[in-house]
User: Fold this.
Amino acid sequence: MPTKPHKKLYYDRAYASAAEVDNFLELAHDLKYLTDKEYSAALEMVNKVSYLIYRLSASLKPLRSIKSTSPTLLTVPTRPTVPSPVLH
Assistant:
């Protein structure tokens, strides 16, 4: 993976794949292919891996956008608003 965008794409796809595994684990558990103990153990592993992949993806800061050649618009300061009187 030569560039950060490639890495980010790879990590995002890996995270999506982990989500698919999570869905299939739930399906296998619902269909009684997995016991509660097996399901819990597998789900814990998937959650750990998902978290690690998420952190890897988040560690790649987005690239700076290319600066526009158009001039920056300045905002005109507005007058402060007067708070309305408090009625008791």
Notes: The CA atoms of residues 27 and 61 lie 35 Å apart. Residues 4-59 form one domain. Helices lie at 4-30, 36-59. The first helix runs from residue 4 to 30.
